[in-house]
Amino acid sequence: MMNDRGGLPLRPPREATRIMYELVAPFLYKDVYRHELVLLGVTPEIVGQPWPINVNFRAFDQSEEMIASVWQPNTRITSSVEQASWQSMPVDDRAVDIILGDGCTTQLPDKLAYEKLFAELARVLRPNGKIVIRCFIRPPLQESLDQVVRDAFAGNIKYFGSLKWRLAMALVEQQDDFSIRVSDIFDTFNELFPDRDQLAMIAGWPLEMIETIERYHRSGTCYTFPTLTQLEKLISRWFTISEVHWGKYELWERCPTLLLRGV
Length: 263
What we know:
Elements: H1 4-7, H2 14-30, E1 35-40, H3 44-47, E2 55-61, H4 64-70, E3 78-83, E4 96-102, H5 111-124, E5 125-134, H6 145-153, H7 160-171, E6 179-181, H8 182-192, H9 196-203, H10 207-210, E7 222-224, H11 228-235, E8 239-245, E9 257-262
Parallel strand pairs: 1-2, 1-4, 2-3, 4-5
Antiparallel strand pairs: 5-9, 6-7, 8-9
């Protein structure tokens, strides 16, 4: 079985899910009425938190494959999953108390997708509701590919996921759409690290972990990595960033957990 060194910080570490849970738990325990909670995606680390029994937990994911392979219901509470686009969820207006998501914005291909998503979240969220999402953001000062390579060959990158994200963010240009083709990440990785056995030996990653980069080959998907300032501007029509929380794991400075409130 592949260890955590491949998935983190792309997969949420315990510290990140703890922050997320602690931001909303007081709200859930304060009132006895049934709370409607929506998860963007099927992240098991979030689903499995010790949610109180007065929670109705609904997860949405557009990918049938992700639902089939990743979804794990929380048997302590009412939890369900539905295949649906986050930009058009089968949820009534102002029906949701809390919306959670981990890394969900990175999967949006462009600025228009951001606008559609946050307009939809504003539609379904009740007044005084909360949105808590962990985002992957680009640093204000662009990192060079050379720096990423130097750190990799010095053994200074702990997680293979960190290497992939640092490459992706270094490839994003400073234009407003802040998007990168997944296939470009794959091509750049092959160019910079032609000897995967050598990289495995230096970094201490199993070769099978490095080979997961093949999933990016010829992919038509685009990822987006705005800066925190760009993200704040994008969502300002519907939400403000009320709180920003940081962890202490590798790449923490690019993985803030945000508490959003409606404007």
